[in-house]
Amino acid sequence: MDAHSSEFQRLIGVQGEDFQHKLDLVVEGQQMLGERMDRMEAELKAEIRKVDQRVTAVAADLAAHRADTEAHHGVYRVKEG
Predict the structure, then answer these.
(1) Which position has the higher pLDDT, 77 or 14?
(2) C-alpha angle 28/32/35, rounded to 5°?
(3) CA–CA separation, 3 vs 77, rounded Å?
């Protein structure tokens, strides 16, 4: 009976170690995924800032062009609609 009990205890220990190893792998994968998502979020924010700067520059160019066009009443006309 003691032989069976010690063998059972050993098997339980092996199963516990195997489970802990697999759990450690899952945790490590989750940490890596979280880090990757953080990097992607930072990259997306940087791209959004670039696009916002471009849109602002185009809007400024358009406003300047419109002001220039409206300054030349006899030659150019801005028509809405």
Answers:
(1) 14
(2) 140
(3) 101
